[in-house]
Amino acid sequence: MNVKLRNVSKRYGKDFSLKNVSLTFETGKIYGLLGPNGSGKSTTLKMIAGLVYPNNGKVEVDAEEVTRKICKKVAYLTELDMFYPSFTVGNMIEFYASQFSDFDMEIAEQLLIDMKLDRAKKIKQLSKGNRGRLKLVLTLSRKSPVLLLDEPFSGLDPMVRDSIVKSLLSYINFEEQTVIIATHEIDEIEPLLDEVIVIFQGDIIGQKNVETLREEEGLSVLEWFKSTMVQMEEN
Amino acid sequence: MTKDFQTSKPIYIQIADHLSSQIVRGEMRAGEKLPSVREMAINSGVNPNTIQRTYSEMERMGIVETKRGQGTFVTENEQVLKELKIRLQTDIIDAFVQNMKELGFSQEEMVEGLEQYFRREQE
Predict the structure, then answer these.
(1) Given Cys at both, which of A55, A219, B13, B56 links A223, Cβ 3.0 to 4.6 Å?
(2) Residue range A130-143: average pLDDT?
């Protein structure tokens, strides 16, 4: 399922979060959305998720203009904690299953085992790493055509990151899903990505295929990202 | 789990190199089935599209064969496997000679150095 941004701008007050951005995301690919803090990564994801509307331009998922109802097709992992502290892990799973018709209980059960999460534990008893894992369980258990992950690795230790990468690779359906990951942690996820997009101060300043970048320019994503940033700062 | 990759080389080639040396070392035998694209992706923490490209490239080189509906297998063509072994040897020698040249060693010094090395080994 295609995701398209056409000439999208978003302002918060006087400040531009995105300036006339056009992007296309294709089915079967994993995209990395990279950029420093405040560059517009989260805003981009929120617009695809129908949580924020553009001031100008159009956001489309599967040729349909995005509204709040797009959550039927779009699974969104926020960088924030979005749990009720008194819920148990099991309550959270049931809540998600009741809200989203594409929620797959079998996948959820398997992911709980993979991530070593205890159904009976209360959210407030979970460590930060385990809350991060739970967020991923909830998002990956949906068979949504579009998966948006906002900083899925932030603040998590390398073991948790590894288990997250493994689960992503195990449960993504590459024939049907499009995955967009916004992150700082470029090194960790480079081998996971098909394409990278760099946002800086609301502008798209580069889009590359990861392997082409290595083949033609001999650069890893991190090296390319840094050199692109240096150029921007010199201008 | 996630392997470290060199930055300047495409990941699909690095995985192909890794599999090739496993085959030459006999860790994977002629006719043996390779992991599925998904399994390989999970084990190495790499995008399945990249693994697919590794398998296609190795198939183009004749090192593996894909059998419809069954998976990908190491070739049983001994000629191809022999050539693969020689290619890996050539790669290592190329890299060795290049490094030695950069350090300023002549051909004679390299040969002499190797002979000395093997004499020490035997003692």
Answers:
(1) A219
(2) 92
B chain contacts of residue A162, beta-carbon cutoff 8 Å: 1-2, 45
Question: Is A170's Cβ below 8 Å from some Cβ in B?
Answer: yes
Question: How far apart are alpha carbons A64 and A106 in whole angstroms?
Answer: 30
Using a 10 angstrom Cβ sphere, with 0-12 exposed, 13-18 middle and 19 or more buried, the burial of residue B118 is exposed
The full 3-state SS of chain A, as one line of letters, equals CCEEEEEEEEEECCEEEEEEEEEEECCCCEEEEECCCCCCHHHHHHHHCCCCCCCEEEEEECCEECCHHHHHCEEEECCCCCCCCCCEHHHHHHHHHHHCCCECHHHHHHHHHHCCCCCCCEHHHCCHHHHHHHHHHHHHCECCCEEEEECCCCCCCHHHHHHHHHHHHHHCCCCCCEEEEEECCHHHHHHHCCEEEEEECCEEEEEEEHHHHHHHHCCCHHHHHHHHHHHHHHC
Q: Which two tokens stand for residue B43?
A: 């084990």
Best of B1, B11, B12, B47 to mutate (most A CBs within 10 Å, chain A): B47
Please check whether residue A226 touches B, CB under 8 A: no
Query: What residues pair up with A64 in beta bridges, in sequence order?
Result: A61
The values of phi and psi at residue B13, to 5°, are: -70, -40
| Residue in chain B lying closest to A170 (CA) | B42
The residue-averaged pLDDT of A182-196 equals: 89
How far is the alpha carbon of A141 from chain B, nearest alpha carbon, in Å? 17
pLDDT tens digits, one per residue of A143-176: 999 999 999 988 788 888 888 888 899 999 888 9
Interface test with chain B among A164, A168, A211, by most B beta carbons within 10 Å: A211
CB contact under 8 A, A194 and B11: no
Answer yes or no: pTM beyond 0.80. yes
ipTM for the whole complex: 0.83
